[in-house]
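Mods, move this if it's the wrong board.
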Amino acid sequence: MDLQTIRVELQASPYPVIIGSAALLSLGDQIRGLGFKAGTKVLLVTNAVVEAHYGASALQSLSEACLDASTLVIEAGEDQKTPATVGLIHDAAFARRLERGSLIVALGGGVVGDMAGFAAATWLRGIAVVQVPTTLLAMVDAAIGGKTGVNHPGGKNLIGAFHQPRLVLIDPSSLATLPEREFRAGMAEVIKYGVIGDPELLAELEASGPQLASLNTLSAELLQRILVRSAAAKAKVVAADEHEGGLRAILNYGHTLGHVVETLCGYGTYLHGEAVGLGMLAAGEISLAMGLWSASDQARQRTVIAAAGLPLAWPALNPDAVLACLQGDKKVREGQVRFVLPTGIGRVEIRSDVSEATIRSALASCA
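Not the wrong board. Structure tokens:
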């Protein structure tokens, strides 16, 4: 399958998202094509599972392109997404004498990408980073857009920076070793793009039905279309609003309440995409209660989320704890929680007038 390129057209720092089978084998050449010279120092950051499957191929590609590459293996569970782990990347950058002209390559899922990106943003006040996502969730969301960071005990991703990659290289063949549960979790972000702005994508997902729940039942052609359409949707929004000053906030659909699930249930109990799916269902119930969209729209969303094999029942959380956790969200403005709410398939708006009673009622409906 030929490589396809989506451009993230940022004014100051545009970059390509390259998608296609066996793309990983071209990693070194793609980096050299960005203008990095022979002998450039590269720190490849990954985790043990990904390194076992793809580390040698990535390192070989970098070495064959005459780049001075070495590997750092880190723990990469959500509970490891901390300043301490970023410190390990900084330690490796110091030990291997990374300079301002050097770069970090993140090979892994969203946790690896977030931490490696944040380390790159803060080493020598910022060096280049290349994102090579190996999970569906990272491919369609986390690797694109330059949001990097780590968790704080009080909430998810409260410590971070915007630091755009020089390149995002997506090789769908690397999904072959992804656990099915993580593949399903990534599908939540794909569904999100359909609900917030791409009705045709959502219709294609609906037509695919149970195929969505497993890579084994999804055709390579459909997977490529999903990756390209999702990347294009993310690129369009990021180009219009790099630092989340307005439009980009729509990408947080499902995340406000999803982050509550992750925080209160403990990181790792629900995968990020599973929590986002629950957050989308809850946001849909809020929209339904406020008369913003119809019961049939909510039913369509629920049906697609169910087809992807994602959880459908809101966890047994104390509503008071949920409301308190919402106040710690990054998107709070002047004490008001800002929700991304659907107004129809393909349309959302940002609202800060959702009452506590509406939130409680919506969560009860999702239980």
